[in-house]
Design goal:
Helix content is 53%, strand content 11%. By secondary structure, it is of the alpha/beta class. A hairpin with a 5-residue loop joins β5 and β6. α22 packs parallel to α23. The chain is elongated. The chain starts with 34 loop residues before the first helix and ends with a strand. One of its GO terms (molecular function) is antiporter activity. InterPro entries: Cation/H_exchanger_TM, CHX17_2nd, CHX17_C, CPA2_transporter, Na+/solute_symporter_sf. Keywords: Antiport, Ion transport, Membrane, Potassium, Potassium transport, Transmembrane, Transmembrane helix, Transport. This is Cation/H(+) antiporter 18.
Length: 791
């Protein structure tokens, strides 16, 4: 599905439903053609699912299983084929509506000269070569077809780029929100629109015999239909979108009315003589992409289309594909010619123009192979050509295999050419909050997966900005978006367009999304630089996106949400179990310090303005790098005029004579002890000059006294604790905890036995390599990849 783009951070979520992770209902386990099994087999090759679906359809047809006539007549009797085709084409109608939804006319107008040049080269060069190839086919296997439509169909078939398939490939390769990903998607969007215009022309030429006047009439009627839709459709859709509030469910009447309009548009264009699909596509393009309305349409239609109708279409297409018609040296030579022409036209045309636009060679080659992606849209074009009599069975089989080959090679080739994730780790100085240059800019990467945590995050940013005259805080607000089989390109691409851009660069129109509004309002009020970014990835590799983003943006700390949220009764329940895997992996591989936020509602459910901030923060200090980082973060927060910091330093009573403790004292690292003593000495001096900081040394004899002392601070607003404390007294504390990624102190603070309403921020200071308890605790309870015991 990493990353960079639109502000639709939470789309169409009813109140009370805070998790945007959309569990996939498109597993296709019952999909005709065994697409799920094929997709599983092709997974090591990182192939998009459409490859498995196309192959599954072909295997069911006369190319493989269908060669057995008894089987073919039993599974697909002739009387069932009209019903199959009807359902498949109905699903195709709504699929093209979704394809239109994925294209934003506003973004096309904003397409840069570089992407536009690449798009035009990616269309014109292969289109010309496609016309040249059509002469070779007409001279051999397609002698009886009409010349004009055949030339245009071949040109379109070779020049098309599959926008939805490309979006998924980029997301899975974590390139969607990179510069090359944005350029590829912009060029593919322009390519898509141009290809559909050319296809409409080809259909107009092919459906009315050889009369040029009738062809012109059909084309002009189609043009008139588009103009009429442009004047009538957008005002109606905008009215529906305005009445669909963010955070509330969209009125079902609006959804039903839109779907009826899709059917009506398809009927009109079919009567005109173009194709029913063209009307659905035009209507999808005209639906406004802002707000929850477009997302609601996707949610209502996508599962039905992808889970039921499209598999039927792949079967229907597979039944028409007979690879056995490609026989003899001539036919195989023509297949090789078509594949070579398709790849050469797209790749060379794109690379040449990209190099002229001063794109580096490696990126230019990557763009060429990405633009060569075909897919379902290509299959649709070929089926239309076959149904119109433009492509015979042999030409159709050749073109289907060409589409399979060009899409199949995309992912492996791009992985071999372009490996940004494997580049050497960049070096930057400020990887921690604890630093000597206190006046240097502080960069935080705050992650969220639901609207529930937004108020606490904003209040935490308010507390973290230090003194007002510094203006040195920059926050990257990262939305964690899971890439599932159901994730559509409309969600991925819109998020990618504005990734990492300042809010003031988002355009003149106000964004109706309440998450964006919240961050924008905070930025304007507090002069804090906030940039939205998104990780679009499977949960198993989400940590790679987070760590890479933190490295690229040179952040000092990553703040992660805890995988549980607090219920109304005060107890914690799991929000998403996979988030625990993400947190553990980030802790292990982060290029900077990490904080895990256990949210109990810091500051309430809304942003607390600077003048109204009145927080008491308690930092627990035993010793070790994590505790030093936690106290340093607390000192930064204490610069805020509305925040007071209480630092509780636990030391062991020298009168205590305990062999086990004495043994740990003897084994205690002298360097760590020295660092702790130096830090405490410097911090005491700072606290003595700052009335907002209280430093308290508490002498204890055992762990029970530690718990009792912490209990006395339960009425504070926020606890700051190190994940793995070190020190003499901590040696006697039970280090086993229910959630090892939190560490023992934070686990105690969130346990039901500990009475507090304070949120907890668990801090781990950056080290080049985690060792000891810091590393082993992350692997406690892990049974296998991504699975843990209960927490």
């Amino acid at each position: 599905m990493s990353t960079a783009h639109e502000g639709h951070l939470e789309r169409g979520l009813p109140r009370g439903r805070s998790s945007p992770f959309r569990t996939s209902s498109r597993d296709h386990t019952d999909m005709p053609g065994g697409g799920a099994e094929l997709a599983y087999l092709l997974r090591p090759l990182r192939q998009p699912r459409v490859i498995a679906e196309i192959i599954g359809g072909i295997l069911l047809g006369p190319s493989a299983l269908g060669r057995n006539k008894k089987y073919l007549n039993a599974v697909f009797p002739p009387r069932s084929l009209p019903v199959l085709d009807t359902l498949a084409n109905l699903g195709l109608l709504f699929f093209l509506f979704l394809v239109g939804l994925e294209l934003d006319p506003k973004s096309l107008r904003r397409t840069g000269k570089k992407a536009l040049s690449i798009a035009l080269a990616g269309i014109s060069f292969p289109f010309a070569l496609g016309i040249g190839t059509s002469f070779a086919l007409r001279a051999t296997i397609s002698k009886d077809v009409s010349e004009g439509p055949f030339l245009v169909f071949m040109g379109v078939a070779l020049s098309i780029t599959a926008f939805p398939v490309l979006a998924r490939i980029l997301a899975e390769l974590k390139l969607l929100t990179t510069d090359i990903g944005r350029m590829a998607m912009s060029a593919a969007a322009v390519n898509d629109v141009a290809a559909w215009v050319l296809l409409a022309l080809a259909i107009a030429l092919s459906g009315t015999g050889r009369s040029p006047i009738l062809s012109l009439w059909v084309f002009l009627c189609g043009l008139g239909f588009v103009i009429l839709c442009i004047f009538i459709g957008p005002p109606i859709f905008k009215w529906m979108a305005r009445r669909s509030s963010e955070g509330e469910s969209v009125n079902e009447v609006y959804v039903c009315a839109t779907l009826v309009a899709v059917l009506a548009a398809g009927l009109v264009t079919d009567i005109i003589g173009i194709h029913a699909l063209f009307g659905a596509f035009v209507l999808g393009v005209l639906v406004p992409k802002e707000g929850p309305f477009a997302g609601a349409l996707v949610e209502k239609v996508e599962d039905l289309v992808s889970g039921l109708f499209l598999p039927l279409y792949f079967v229907s297409s597979g039944l028409k594909t007979d690879v056995a018609t490609i026989r003899g040296a001539q036919s195989w030579a023509l297949l090789a010619l078509v594949i070579f022409t398709a790849c050469f036209g797209k790749i060379v045309g794109t690379v040449v123009v990209a190099r002229l636009c001063k794109v580096p060679l490696r990126e230019a080659l990557t763009l060429g192979f990405l633009m060569n992606t075909k897919g379902l849209v290509e299959l649709i074009v070929l089926n239309i050509g076959r149904d119109r009599g433009v492509l015979n069975d042999e030409a159709f089989a050749i073109m289907v295999l060409m589409a399979l080959f060009t899409t199949f090679i995309t992912t492996p080739t791009v992985m071999a050419i372009y490996k940004p994730a494997r580049m050497a780790r960049s070096e930057y100085r400020h990887r921690t909050i604890q630093r000597k240059e206190a006046s240097s800019q502080l960069r935080l990467l705050t992650c969220f997966h639901s609207t529930r945590s937004i108020p606490t995050l904003i209040n935490l940013m308010e507390a973290s900005r230090g003194t007002a005259n510094r203006g040195r805080l920059r926050v990257y607000a990262m939305h964690l978006m899971e890439l599932t089989e159901r994730s559509s390109a409309i969600l991925m691409v819109h998020k990618a367009r504005k990734n990492g851009l300042p809010f003031w660069k988002k355009g003149q129109e106000n964004d109706p999304n309440h998450v964006v509004v919240a961050f924008e309002a905070f930025q304007q009020l507090c002069q804090v630089s906030i940039r939205p970014t998104t990780a679009i990835s499977p949960m198993s590799t989400m940590h790679e996106d987070i760590c890479t983003s933190a490295e690229t943006k040179r952040t000092a700390m990553i703040i992660l949400p805890f995988h549980k949220h607090q219920r109304l009764d005060g107890q914690f329940e799991t929000t998403r179990a996979e988030l625990r895997h993400v947190n553990r992996k980030v802790l292990e591989h982060a290029p900077c310090s990490v904080g895990i936020l256990v949210d109990r509602g810091l500051g309430g459910t809304a942003h607390v303005s600077a003048s109204n901030v009145d927080y008491t923060i308690t930092a627990i200090f035993f010793g070790g790098p994590d505790d030093r980082e936690a106290v340093s973060y607390g000192a930064l927060m204490a610069e805020h005029p509305g925040i007071s910091l209480n630092v509780v330093h636990f030391v062991i009573d020298p009168k205590v004579v305990d062999e086990s403790v004495q043994l740990d004292i003897d084994q205690y690292d002298p360097e760590t002890r020295s660092n702790n003593e130096e830090f405490v000495s410097e911090f005491k001096q700072k606290a003595s000059k700052d009335s907002s900081i209280t430093f308290k040394e508490v002498m204890v004899c055992n762990a029970d006294e530690v718990v009792d002392e912490i209990q006395t601070h339960g009425r504070c607003n926020l606890f700051l604790v190190g994940r793995i404390p070190e020190g003499q007294i901590f040696s006697s504390v039970n280090k086993r905890s229910e959630c090892p990624e939190l560490g023992p102190i934070a686990s105690m603070l969130m346990s039901p036995e500990f009475s507090t309403t304070a949120s907890v921020l668990v801090v781990q200071q950056y080290r080049r390599q985690l060792t000891g308890d810091s590393l082993t605790s992350l692997r406690e309870g892990e049974t296998k990849e991504g699975e843990y015991d209960s927490c």
